[in-house]
Amino acid sequence: MSDMLDHFGKIFQEGSTRAGIKCCSEWTTQYVYQPHPRDKRKILPTSWTYYPWSRDMHDAEGDFLIGMKAAQMAYTNVVVDQTLYRIDMLGSSCLYLMPNQNPVASDFSSGRLHKLLLASPYLSTLFTSGSNVGHKMAGTRELWIRGASSDAGLRNIDPDFIVLDEFDVMDQKGVAMALRRPDGQWNSTVWMISTPTLPESGIHKEWLNSTKEHWRFKCPICSQMCQLDFPDCLVVTGDGLNDPKLAESHVICNRCKKPIRHEDKIEAQNKTGRWEAEEPGGSSRGFYINQLYSCQKEPHKIARQAIEAQYSKSKEQEYWNQAGGVPHIVDGAKLTEQDILGRRVVRKMDESWPSHIRVRTMGVDVGKVFHYTIDGWTYDKPDRDLNLATSCDVLRAGFCDSLTEIRQLMYQYQVAMTVIDYQPEERLVYEFCSQNRGTTLRCQYAAGESGSKMSLKTDDETKVNIHRNHWLDLRLGRFTTNRIRLPRDISEEYVVHHKNIVKHFSEDKRGSVSKDKSEYKKQGADHLAHSGAYSEVAFAVAASRSANVPYRSVL
Predict the structure, then answer these.
(1) In this structure, is residue 416 part of a structural domain?
(2) Which of 71, 221, 341, 401 is most exposed by smallest CB count within 10 Å?
(3) 3-state DSSP call for residue 56?
(4) What are the pLDDT digits (tens) for 214-255?
(5) What is the DSSP string of 156-212?
(6) Domain, as residue range, for 351
(7) Structure-model confidence comparison of residues 11 and 46, the more confident one
(8) How many domains is the chain partitioned into structurally?
């Protein structure tokens, strides 16, 4: 009898506790347990001491919420806690979207989320035993954990709360599909969080349209509300990684410019910190923070990154994106307007092509329309690195509405070889290439292709796989090495498309060796840049056939 009374007493107490909870931050404090930031062996109820900015974020409301962040600043804690709170207290069904299903989404579900649920006596019973890694049930409420790269995983679900975690590296087709899932709901909320990559794209583009809220606190020196601007509020006191003075690096107030001790910074943020909006009328709420505010990572560790960034493009990219939480373009990673317009000559597009041109090729990028580039090539004889030893005249560049018009241009310019992007109109392009065998190839970017950087498929003579970075490097490099000439009436669209493609760097670690690696990202439409790269491929194929040598021998 006594045990039964205790059981019902606990149920009554739990019900009273739940009834008193008014917001997500209160629920999180009551039910979510986390490892202590400075001693991972201790699992304790959530404390805001080391992430004071995250408390108000837990209670943020709106149709769209934007979080632009540096790494390890507890934004993921915010959206995970909000997800569980909404399932438990508001009866929501939620979609948690990550860049891909395997391994990212699966590892997140079976690792981080699983450990979070097990750590809490209350949350450990939230989901039924029939739940799996990608789909969890809490009564009639559902949690889908999916990857943006899988269309199939985003069909037939109806969430009213969506999290897009690491938005900048997601497949945008998957994102668009995910954002349509709540169409049948009366109310819905979307959280987008990410470290940024490039200016005016991805999370930074969303941030620019938001309230642009910064975390500010009262400076313990001058008592003014200050914010720690990156990197201006970091003082690096050493000259190199082995300089003992580097340990004295510190942050300063952006108002009085006086040093702020790390422990004083923690105390001041907990006592006086608040979010303040630059654009109160923004279309969504947006939050930004960098690692200078971190209550765990001391300034001298960020100072080390600042020094490393001087000697490595990948370290530079990491410093700005991951430590600063701001978009960044490494010097020389994109073409300038002068790089492009400086290659114009007196000839116009409608005029006859120069007499020195030996062969003409075309590249076509497929989208809503067909963007094309027609090139004329000058070279002496096929040899190693033929593409590097040639000069290119862009004869015509633009777009048309159909492949019939592409065929007409091929005849008009006596094009020897045309390479066409095989997506998204796979069937249409296949039929076109089949009808024009010998003069057309459909092309797929295949990151795994190496060695010669191009692979003609033996089982499909209409298809070629190419290494994306290699051919874009080759094409864009012509502008900086003066090996390309443009007609003087080249379109503004051509210029914009080539400025919109940017090289983004990261670190490639293999064993004890690390080196810079890169991939091209876009800031906007970039079709004509890709059509130029396809024309480069077409020239390599045409030149090898003209000389009756294997294509690999001229690359």
Answers:
(1) yes
(2) 401
(3) helix
(4) 999 999 999 999 999 999 999 999 889 999 999 999 999 999
(5) S---SEEEEETGGGS-HHHHHHHHHGGGG-SS-EEEEEE---STTSHHHHHHHTS--
(6) 337-554
(7) 46
(8) 1
